[in-house]
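Researcher: Here's a chain I'd like modeled. Treat it as a single chain, no partners, no ligands.
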Amino acid sequence: MSNWIEIGSLDEIPRLGSRVVESAAGDIAVFRAADDSVFALRDQCPHKGGPLSQGIVHGRSVSCPLHNWTIDLVSGEAQAPDEGCTGKYEVMVENGVVYLAL
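Model: Modeled as a single isolated chain. Structure tokens:
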């Protein structure tokens, strides 16, 4: 069973931006899309380990700031022609508060 932790309000994550949550397993990037949907991925691109939290969010994807790989926010998968995957985490928003499953 997952352990849900409160990471703050939805308003603390900028639209088309992210917030980093530190965990024992490494940094987790929590992203907010334009439609206020929220996603969480390991803050490391599968290519060269770039910080996805510093990338550009577009639609339901983020572009790595190092080499412009596009990572799907839902699955953590790199989009073709690139290959690779970063870890994903469950998130939920209740009454404007964001929770992350560790």
